[in-house]
Structure formats: structure tokens, C-alpha cells
Design goal:
The chain has about 180 residues and is α+β, with helices and mostly antiparallel strands. It contains six helices and seven strands, in the order H-E-E-H-E-E-H-H-E-E-E-H-H. A five-stranded antiparallel sheet has the order 4-3-7-6-5, sandwiched between helices. It is elongated and about 60 Å long. The chain starts with 19 loop residues before the first helix and ends with a helix. The relative contact order is 0.14.
Length: about 180
């Protein structure tokens, strides 16, 4: 465990303040949920992502869809890519999402780019191609996004509809949980 040198008092209600610089570095925003773990005499706070609970399922979905449409498919939570398939998999999997992707998720966006253009879905990686984007929403909460990316040929009308379909399939997994 890495020490920060930051010391905080607990108030009368049992609360502590997580310093702004730590929240910024760990991408913790107002309203985010933290999971609490106990390890011997330590309390560990981890940013909670409901999408992590379906990471294996998301990987199976992207692999299956990729076999049919032969495009890159990316599924992310509100912080990072949790599943990917296709030629971009090793560049995207586990990477933090970009500000553009984060804002699109928070706005509950669903859109298609039919003209070949530059895009940055993950931090520090700029690609060029076509894409279909659909936010994953469950009970009014944004959870992440499904992005279908083609770097070589336009996405057909049928293929672009697969992002919202996959988004709905993933969202419905939380109804049964």
C-alpha cells in the first residue's frame, strides 16, 4: 500500500473527507459509489462499478458479436474499458476512457458516425474510422457504453443497431441481480 501522508479526522457522524487531489487522480466524482473492504486493521475504499460484476459476460458478448460483424467492439464502465474484441482489443482493454467518452456516457448519448473521422474513446489513443456508440442505462443510472468501431469500412445500418441492442442486453442483466 502506498502512503499519501494525508491525515484526516473523523467527524461526529463518522465521516472523513477524501482530498480533492486524490478524488481527481482516482477519477472519483460527486455521487460516485465506493465499496468498503476491511483487511486486518485497514479500511480500503474502492470505486464501485456494477459493470465489473458482468465483465465475463460482456467479454463473451463482444467476442460473439465480433465473430458475426467483424468490427471492433468495446464495452466500458464509467472509468475504463472492461471488454473488447477485434484488432483494437490489446490497445483498449483495461485503459481509462477519454473525457469525450465520459461526457457521452453522462449525457446518455447514442449516436453513429457514418463518415470516416478521428476519435479518442480511451486516453492517449487516437484512431480513425467509423463508429456506433450507445450508453448503458439501468434504472435511470448511467453504467457505461457499448462502442462498435470499424477502421476500414463503413458500418452498415444493421450493424450500427447492434450497439443499442448490446447495451440493452447488458442493462437487462442488472434487473435479475
Amino acid at each position: 500500500m502506498k502512503t499519501t501522508g494525508i491525515i484526516r479526522r473523523i467527524d461526529d457522524l463518522g465521516r472523513i473527507v477524501i482530498p480533492k487531489e486524490l478524488r481527481r487522480n482516482l477519477r472519483i466524482k460527486n455521487g460516485d459509489t465506493l465499496e468498503v473492504f476491511v483487511d486486518v486493521e485497514s479500511i480500503i475504499l474502492k470505486k464501485y462499478s456494477p459493470m465489473e460484476s458482468i465483465e465475463d459476460l460482456a467479454s463473451k458478448y463482444v467476442d460473439s458479436f465480433n465473430q458475426v460483424i467483424k468490427h471492433n467492439i468495446v464495452i466500458c464502465d464509467k472509468d475504463k474499458v472492461i471488454a473488447a474484441s477485434g484488432s483494437l482489443k490489446k490497445n483498449y482493454l483495461g485503459k481509462n476512457i477519454s473525457e469525450f467518452t465520459s461526457r457521452s456516457i453522462e449525457r446518455r448519448d447514442s449516436f453513429v458516425e457514418r463518415q470516416k473521422k478521428s476519435f479518442t474513446f480511451v486516453e492517449d489513443i487516437n484512431d480513425f474510422g467509423y463508429y456506433s456508440f450507445s450508453s448503458i442505462i439501468n434504472n435511470g443510472d448511467t453504467l457505461g457504453a457499448v462502442i462498435i468501431i470499424s477502421v476500414d469500412r463503413p458500418i452498415t445500418e444493421t450493424e450500427e443497431k447492434l450497439a443499442p441492442i448490446l447495451s440493452n442486453l447488458l442493462s437487462n442483466k442488472f434487473i435479475d441481480s
